[in-house]
Input
Amino acid sequence: MANLSNQAANVLLKYGINKGDRVLVMLPRIPEWWIFAIALIKLGAVFCPRPTMFTPRDIQYLVNKGRFRMIITNLENTGKVEEICNECPSLSCRFVVDAEIKGWASWPYELLYPAPVSHHTVSDTGWVKCAWGKIFGQWIEGVCIFVYHFTGKFQVTEVLPLLEKYQVTTFCCPPTIYRMLILADLERFDLSSLRHCTSAGEPLNPEVIRVWKEGTGLTICERYGQTETVCCVAALPCLERRPGSMGKPSPGWIVEIHNDEGKPAGIHEEGRIAISCDPRPVGLFMGYLDNPEENQKSFVNGWYYTGDNAYRDDDGYLWFVGREDDVIKSSGYRIGPFEVVRALLEHPAVQEAAVVGSPDRIRGLIVKVFVVLKAGYDPSESLIREIKTFVKHTTAPYKYPRAIEFVPDLPKTISGKIKRNELWEHELQRYRERE
Output
């Protein structure tokens, strides 16, 4: 990898990429992603990975906003770049890693190096989780990274045999995938090589944590961070486990929960997650590129506000509530969607659930739930009433869902996160049609 990245760096120099130049990398989980990531870092160029699911419109906006000089991608995605490259004046070079195309720089041509077969992983290369879990931390420790590349729809049934066959020792995936995995007979697989299991992206419900521990003997550790940060809150190995909690601040990070006035919130009082910039922790981003309005909103009086809400318990553990812009304000109450989801997933009939605010003429918004039922359960009005009553007794009564819709599945990103924005837009469109 060191030799290949040196060769790639020399090729990039040939095409005019130097220190400070901005390069967009849009590759799937193939070795070239790692090769060019390291090459660009060695050159001091600005390395910006993006998901391969980006549309031409997404690419055009990003290239022009960030003034990128080069795009590195694969044959499958070159058509998107061709469609918009004439509208991107800063784009001086297009680089393809697995083909030879007129007008494109070609990795196989430059090195007479055949396009290699990919290996395999769950984390997509376009998200910050890939940096956390598939390159920097692991290679600094000298650890082997197991990569699982798939195209099309993710098949969760393929994961457990891979963990067994390749004796994976540390495993991390989003809660959605864990919820799918526990449906399998975990005792059929030899997972004795596993030593540490983690999750990120959204809170895990206690039922999943319990079933996973029964099947593997391991407790899933949760953590919190953003693209703008590193892992700044975590259920660290030295801490007592609190299923459902993000854990406590990582060493070197001062994290508080603030109210709307910028003052520390009380115990169990929901507020904004705030990170102290004095001293500035290693790993906190410097600011949003060419966006002074967003910087002014996020950095206030020596604190960086993440845009997420949480609360702190008596022992200092942090509990995630939701994004500030996801909080549902209904009849004067502030309701975090993840709190409702956590309650819903404790019901024996609920396999998956997503919560959004649905427009309502009287309340402004009501809590609307989309539910995927477990096998053996059928949609019915009596089940809707049962679920509503269950949530009322599991969390604060005002948080119960006033509307429930049963669906066969939920829209998800390639990394398994539920696309709540699509569900919200669906509800908004319905409301407009009714009105």
